[in-house]
Design brief:
Layout: E1 9-11, H1 13-27, H2 29-42, H3 51-75, E2 77-79, E3 93-99, E4 106-111, E5 123-124, H4 129-134, E6 142-146, E7 152-162
Parallel strand pairs: 1-2, 4-5
Antiparallel strand pairs: 3-4, 3-7, 6-7
Helix pairs in contact: 1-2, 1-3, 2-3
Length: 165
């Protein structure tokens, strides 16, 4: 089976290990814990008016969704080193761009999947319009991407450095 680059998520070994550990926790101890909560709430009686039971079932649903997300992510992950600081834009880089070449109108963001998302820095997916527009360009180059309204926007790559978060 061939995978397109759109389906692949590049992860460092550290990120892969962290996500794998989360998956193992969710499919092991966390699953047992939520099953115990549901069983305890079920013993309380009438399920129609049992808030604890419904809350536990909702928590179980969210947990199982996360298990499916992690499973798919890890199945499609390519593990490798963080990108080199060679001035090129690639996933895993913190990129600073200037809109329409105006160095007073800039945006700095992490180009990565949401698994890397941090409250410290805005994150754009490599599959987003901006992400696909800047990938492969080098510092100093202009890049173009399509806006939601169909128009094109021009940005200049000011900086591209590996994410250290």
């Amino acid at each position: 089976m061939t995978q397109t680059s759109e389906n692949v998520t590049w992860l460092t070994q550290e990120a892969y290990n962290k996500l794998k550990a989360e998956l193992e926790h969710l499919t092991g101890p966390a699953r047992a814990e939520i099953s115990a909560k549901i069983a305890a709430a079920r013993e309380e009686g009438d399920l129609r008016e049992n808030g604890g039971y419904h809350a536990a079932k909702e928590e179980q649903g969210k947990q199982e969704l996360r298990v499916r997300q992690l499973t798919q992510l890890l199945e499609n992950a390519k593990v490798g080193e963080a990108p080199a600081a060679n001035g090129g834009v690639a996933p895993g880089m913190v990129v600073t761009i200037a809109f329409d070449g105006d160095e007073d109108d800039t945006l700095t963001f992490l180009l990565a999947s949401r698994e890397y998302a941090s409250s410290d820095i805005e994150t754009y997916s490599p599959q987003s319009p901006l992400g696909t527009g800047v990938i492969g360009h080098k510092v100093g180059e202009d890049a173009e991407y399509e806006l939601p309204n169909g128009k094109k926007a021009l940005v200049k790559i000011l900086k591209a450095e590996p994410y250290e978060g």
